[in-house]
Amino acid sequence: MKLEKLVGDRFKERPADCQIDSHAIMLKGGYIKHVANGIYSLYTPLKRVTKKIEQIIREEMDAIDGQEVMFPVVMPASLWEESGRYESIGSELLRFTDRNDNKMVLGMTHEEAAVHLVREYGSSYTKYPFMIYQIQTKFRDEARPRGGLIRVREFTMKDAYSFHTSQEDLEQYYDKCHKAYERIFARAGVPEVVSVKSDSGMMGGSVSHEFMLLTPIGEDSIAICSECGYSANMEAADSIIENVKDEISANMEKVHTPDSHTIEEVCGYLNMPVEKACKAVVYQRNMDDSYVVVFLRGDIEVNETKLRNFLGAEIHPAVITEESGIVAGFIGPVGITDKCTVLFDNSLKNTNNMVCGANEEDYHFTGLDLDRDVQNVEYHDFAKIKDGGICPVCGKKAITVSRGIEVGNIFQLGTKYTKTMGMTYLDKDGAVKTPIMGCYGIGVGRLAASVCEAHHDEYGPIWPMAIAPWQVHLCAVRADNAEVKATADKFYEDLTNAGVEVIYDDRKVSAGFMFSDADLIGCPLRVVISPRNLKEGCFEISARDKSFSIKCPVEESLAKIRELIAQMNTSL
Amino acid sequence: MKLEKLVGDRFKERPADCQIDSHAIMLKGGYIKHVANGIYSLYTPLKRVTKKIEQIIREEMDAIDGQEVMFPVVMPASLWEESGRYESIGSELLRFTDRNDNKMVLGMTHEEAAVHLVREYGSSYTKYPFMIYQIQTKFRDEARPRGGLIRVREFTMKDAYSFHTSQEDLEQYYDKCHKAYERIFARAGVPEVVSVKSDSGMMGGSVSHEFMLLTPIGEDSIAICSECGYSANMEAADSIIENVKDEISANMEKVHTPDSHTIEEVCGYLNMPVEKACKAVVYQRNMDDSYVVVFLRGDIEVNETKLRNFLGAEIHPAVITEESGIVAGFIGPVGITDKCTVLFDNSLKNTNNMVCGANEEDYHFTGLDLDRDVQNVEYHDFAKIKDGGICPVCGKKAITVSRGIEVGNIFQLGTKYTKTMGMTYLDKDGAVKTPIMGCYGIGVGRLAASVCEAHHDEYGPIWPMAIAPWQVHLCAVRADNAEVKATADKFYEDLTNAGVEVIYDDRKVSAGFMFSDADLIGCPLRVVISPRNLKEGCFEISARDKSFSIKCPVEESLAKIRELIAQMNTSL
Predict the structure, then answer these.
(1) What does the pLDDT average to over A183-200?
(2) With contacts defined as CB-CB under 8 Å, which chain A residues touch B423?
(3) For the range B117-121, what are the long-range contacts, defined as Cβ-Cβ under 8 Å and sequence gap of 24 or more?
(4) Which class would CATH give A16-194+408-453?
């Protein structure tokens, strides 16, 4: 189409309220318009991007025997009451009543609707396995939408649900879907998306993965091993700490440590490295405010997700009262009050000659040897993995911590929804059983925004060929020149007839103005037709990512463009 | 895909609560599942139908320079307050508050969102005309959803909005869109959809058309001229009545008509045809209960839409009190109380020797000559057009009244939204002007259901090739026969490789069971491979609409199928 007719404004100034680049680019480039907090309208260029992403997703879901269906956006509360989520989910689930005072919700995910759709169909083992998916609008009443399309309230999502008669079958399908996700991101032009083991938290505790596009503005931290490729969300990454005991264990001695409350203060005062400290971190359970004390090596941080999962309870940082019997600032494993739960992190395994609190104001112990001085210690992993830490798979000190945006996730759900919603099937032997589910999501708008975030320069997005709004941006520089205009018109027609998607700029504006618009639209290929080029019998063909710029003879240009598109299109 | 793996149940019994056939078929055939009142999930076969319809719509909208965008489902109430519709629309507009107590609505149409999206863009005359459209979920909190997908609360709709600088330009574009709609319905396999002039009511009073698929279960009545093709919604159809005055006008005489309250009673009592009666129908304005008396010829009914538009006010049938001064059952134009609005329908033009009420209990007048006996009569059209009535275009008595389902509509909106929402542009001469809008809708799910309603038999739907869930239904009858199974598997593969969409039934079930499933799925072509056919070296190829059934040599079958698809596909 002609750029002149493209609805939407483009401008140079970065909008004041944009924290991240993709948000600014989406506004400056005429991709989105803010309608309300976390709610946007999409202009044509972004709609074209999301349609292409959706089509790639659709093809890959169909290829693993997915059946596209459609669930409602508005659902009766009763459906969510069946699963228990009407009560358990917070205010991000938008609840309202219709004209007849029926309680309704806006769908933020569709596990309930999926079970509802197939509950009768899946009544015999012969029907399994199967997978259904949809690409549909969702609404999640986020407290703090941010970053343009990165975290919104209304969004388009592909959500898929698979049903199985055994855990093995689920795992097999889960792997197939994992591979399909890798293909989706590779085809969409972002093969650098990494899958990371993630924490499925209180969802049932089974396996799940997140697909992350690495970018410094990401909301998640990811541990990646540069040696073996292991990767996991920080929340889920196993922490491996190796200690070598000092040959001689000193005796435990109580020392006076006035005004030394923090590990750094104590270690500084005693002239010891923090690695030789046995640190205490104190939490309280939300339900009854009971205390939980976690001991770990002085240089290690608590991973609260692991702690939460271990306890099976929500926690918060403690407010230590006098009645607790806990001596804040001087907590240690020897002689600690029995009114609290005491836990030990793996990082304390095999340590001696440690300093720790003496559970007495202004006193610490030195010479702590956990094996010797504390009875019945069980060690568990409550630690955050560190940059430079040991990879839990290959054992090498090769962990780096990066930031990323979650663009997809896959879950082994187990029977959480089928059980609560009473979905059963008759097995081969006539036994009544509960099917096992998996679910698989991709946020379409967020993926588009993440690609923009990961692939842009100061002038605009650098869209991958497979999802670019148009493949070619054709500029007729000096369109007031009759030869330029006629040649460009002709080439526009030739490209269009050849099935190439072109946005054609034949406005009578300066080359600089044209190019800055082209940068904002971000098509991977640019063709410039100008009086100067025509004198040489050439068009200038260049890549948006500046990887090449060639002068191509006019008569060879169409073939060259088609060749370049095929080379650059990762979706073919 | 294989029918065995298709998610969704099919069954024979007609569900008890289905008033119309398409509703029953959609449930019996595994197309939809009821989630809540007027809210459905779609299974794969219907999702495939709607995707094809959407793609046809998209291509035709793009062909008339439409730009696909996406508006939000959830919108802030403030946007609807700008246009005034937050107040003026009833409870079909679903209103709720989000977690921060902001007032929100669910989009039932997107005029406001469209103006919001382009309000800044369209600030100069040079940007016009342009059209934007979306295909998106909508929610309308209908009081009485009915008929499966015919009248629902949640639905997918294509809604388009065009913007113009002159009425002429709008009209030109409106005509283009009218033609695009004709192409859409023709391509979708329902060329019989008729466009009818419709009433745009209080929307602004300009031109609008509805596109109707004629079926006896339709909610709308349509007047169609069998001579000239004129068609209009009953609400909008001009009523033409021709009267020839009797040569001699008798004098007016008051006659005693005891116990004769209705026109039929009076005319019977006086032995006159009802066409010689001047009938009164009484309404009250909703806002102040003031009375409106409409006089019209005894055989003619009031078209309340026309009356409402004329008055610019909502009305309801009157409750006649004593204080009104109106003598119920004996109302006439001579001597009627001046406390009410008195209106005359065109059907009384040129009449004499009429009977009418005398505004006195138990008395009528005969010999009424309106020209002579009533002063300052203005005639307007308040009448319903009748079966056998006069066509307002060609003047022939060739009107037939049919019923239809509205599957699309187009409106010349004028400046209703742009004016209230403060959208302006600078014209050539620097003057600030308000753009003129058109809007254009098609209900995707309703169109699918309407096609099913108009094209089905007692066994199931007869989908047009262009929108059928699959083009070919392949049945391996006696799949336990090795030759049948191998041949059918091979042909399934051949068809699939040739790009033909096939649903393949290789279940070990009876031919009758297979065929009744095939009828419910409604693919336009059926291929049967059976031991009997194979003996003759043939496949049986038949049409779902029973228009043909041929035995085709195995080796010619693929070519034949491709030929038939091309012939039958109105979308190519």
Answers:
(1) 89
(2) none
(3) B117/A7, B117/A33, B117/A41, B117/A43, B117/B69, B117/B71, B118/A7, B118/B163, B118/B423, B119/B421, B119/B422, B119/B423, B120/A9, B121/A7, B121/A8, B121/A9
(4) alpha beta
Q: Kindly report, residue by residue over A24-67, the tens digit of the pLDDT.
A: 999 999 999 999 999 999 999 999 999 999 999 999 999 999 99
- CA pair distance B106, B466, nearest whole angstrom: 32
The residue with tokens 């890959």 is A60
Chain A residues near residue B92 by CB distance under 8 angstroms = 99
In B, which residues are within 8 Å of A34 by CB distance?
none
Identify the H or E element spanning A45: helix A44-63
**Burial of B422 by CB count in 10 Å (0-12 exposed, 13-18 middle, 19+ buried)?**
exposed
The residue of chain B nearest to residue A8, with distances taken between CA atoms, is B121
CB contact (8 A) between residue B121 and residue A7: yes
Chain A and chain B share a number of CB contacts under 8 A equal to: 164
Question: Distance (Å, rounded) from C-alpha B142 to C-alpha B165?
Answer: 35
Contact present, B421 and B119 (Cβ < 8 Å): yes
| 3 state SS of B175 | helix
Kindly report the CATH class assigned to B14-192+414-453.
Answer: alpha beta
3-class secondary structure, A249: coil
pLDDT for residue A201: 55
Structure confidence at residue B235 as a pLDDT band (50, 70, 90): confident
**pTM of the predicted structure, to 2 decimals:** 0.88
- The residue of chain B nearest to residue A97, with distances taken between CA atoms, is B96
* Dihedral (CA of A503, A509, A514, A516) sign: negative
What's the confidence (pLDDT) of residue A200?
62
What secondary structure, in 3-state letters, does B512-561 show? Answer: HHHHHHHHHHCCCEEEEECHHHHHCCEEEEEECCCCCEEEEEHHHHHHHH
CA distance A400 to A385: 9
Mean pLDDT of B169-179: 97
Chain A closest-CA separation from residue B168 CA (Å) = 20
Query: Which residue type does A208 have?
Result: S
pLDDT tens for each residue of B338-393: 999 999 999 999 999 999 999 999 999 999 999 999 988 999 999 999 889 999 89
Domain positions in chain A: 16-194+408-453, 253-380, 470-568
Option in B44, B73, B104 nearest A73 (CB): B73
Give tens-digit pLDDT for A240-264.
998 999 999 999 999 999 888 888 8
Residues B133-153: tens digit of each pLDDT? 999 999 999 988 999 999 999
Cβ contacts of A7 on chain B, cutoff 8 Å: 67, 69, 117-118, 121, 127, 130, 132
Q: Which residues of A touch B36 (CB under 8 A)?
A: 72, 74-76, 102, 104
- Closest CB to A99 among B7, B71, B141: B141
Nearest-CA residue of chain B relative to A47? Answer: B69
Residue of B68, B100, B137 lying closest to A44 (CB–CB) = B68
Residue in chain A lying closest to B72 (CA):
A41
Q: The domain A253-380 belongs to what CATH superfamily? A: YbaK/aminoacyl-tRNA synthetase-associated domain (3.90.960.10)
Phi and psi of B265, rounded to 5°?
-65, -45
CA atoms within 13 A on the CB side of B217: 18
B111 pLDDT above the threshold of 90: yes
Position of tokens 């209009």? B232
User: What is the fold, at CATH topology level, of the domain defined by B470-568?
Assistant: Rossmann fold (3.40.50)
Optimal mutation site among B37, B54, B69, B82, interface A, most CBs of chain A within 10 A: B69
The answer, yes or no, to whether the previous bond of A129 is cis (omega within 30 of 0) is yes
Cα–Cα dist B551/B461, whole Å: 24
Instruction: Give the model's confidence band at A236: pLDDT under 50 very low, under 70 low, under 90 confident, else very high.
Output: confident
Nearest residue of A to residue B120, measured between CA atoms: A9
